[in-house]
Design a protein that fits this description.
Elements lengths: L1 H39 L5 H18 L2 H11 L2 H28 L3 H13 L3 H9 L4 H14 L6 H19 L3 H33 L4 H56 L6
Length: about 280
């Protein structure tokens, strides 16, 4: 599963770079088409030219959309830093989706599972309880399996050993739940940082233009300032998107951790009540 998401992330990053190149080529091709059309239109009468000019803004307004605006702003922001921000978004989303899928599959009906497990333990069917834990996914089932294996043994079936086993397995499962979360926080911090870096470089470009022109005019400063603002905006947007996913992942982790704590208490109670537990 993790390798699959890693491959998807790398393919998406490469595809995004190829898409940027294709969009740039499309802009060049479109410019060439417009130039050739301008040459051919010299033979058209004045009335037809005026009609085409009046209709052009309408067609252009209809063709513009969100994707086209994003593509335009992406190109204007500079392929270098905008590509880095886009790669941070793709990799961060891949990790977020992997965590969401993993945590969603790890969730079970804890109360129903523990009730069925308690019935098996009360009936003395410890082997059946172990098999039930093995056939159930999620950290609660894994913690319960360790407790049942201790209860079914002859040298680890005292309540102290069972409690230590439950605590150690809960720590292990908690580590599995939080896996890759540090990488997600890295991309959350990296995206706006890359945007701010683009801002600084855009400001340097603006001052270089001012130095070459020898004049502080809006036209000279606008280019560098535009690059600076666009990279900052995209970096912040990427960070906000990843932050929403990250908070959702944390809520899922907290829910599963709470379920494990509740299950641990019930496991200790059912172990004490069992005849196989050394008091």
């Amino acid at each position: 599963m993790k390798k699959l998401f890693a491959i998807i992330a790398m393919v998406a990053a490469c595809s995004f770079g190829a898409t940027s190149f294709v969009m740039a080529q499309e802009d060049v091709a479109a410019t060439e088409v417009v130039d050739s059309a301008a040459v051919d239109s010299a033979a058209v009468d004045t009335a037809a030219v005026e009609e085409a000019v009046e209709a052009a803004p309408i067609v252009e307004e209809e063709s513009e959309g969100v994707f086209k605006n994003l593509k335009t702003k992406y190109i204007e922001g500079g392929a270098g830093f905008m590509s880095l921000v886009a790669i941070a978004l793709v990799l961060g989303l891949a990790l977020c989706i992997e965590r969401v899928v993993y945590l969603t599959l790890a969730q079970i009906n804890t109360r129903k599972f523990m009730k069925e497990l308690a019935d098996l333990v009360a009936a003395g069917k410890i082997a059946d309880a172990i098999e039930k834990c093995k056939g159930t996914r999620g950290p609660v089932a894994q913690v319960s399996r360790k407790a049942m294996e201790c209860l079914d043994s002859n040298d680890r079936n005292d309540i102290g050993t069972i409690e230590r086993t439950i605590n150690m397995e809960a720590e292990v499962q908690g580590t599995y739940l939080e896996e890759n979360c540090s990488w997600i926080t890295l991309f959350i911090a990296m995206a706006p940082s890359l945007g701010f870096l683009g801002t600084v470089i855009g400001m340097v470009m603006a001052f270089d233009d001012i130095q070459r022109a020898g004049d502080i005019s809006p036209t000279v400063v606008a280019g560098g300032m535009k690059v600076a603002l666009i990279t900052t905006i995209f970096g912040i947007i990427v960070a906000l998107i990843l932050q929403v996913f990250y908070n959702y992942i944390l809520s899922k982790v907290e829910s599963l951790t709470s379920n494990m704590e509740e299950a641990a208490q019930e496991l200790l109670v059912m172990s004490v009540k069992s005849d196989k537990c050394k008091k």
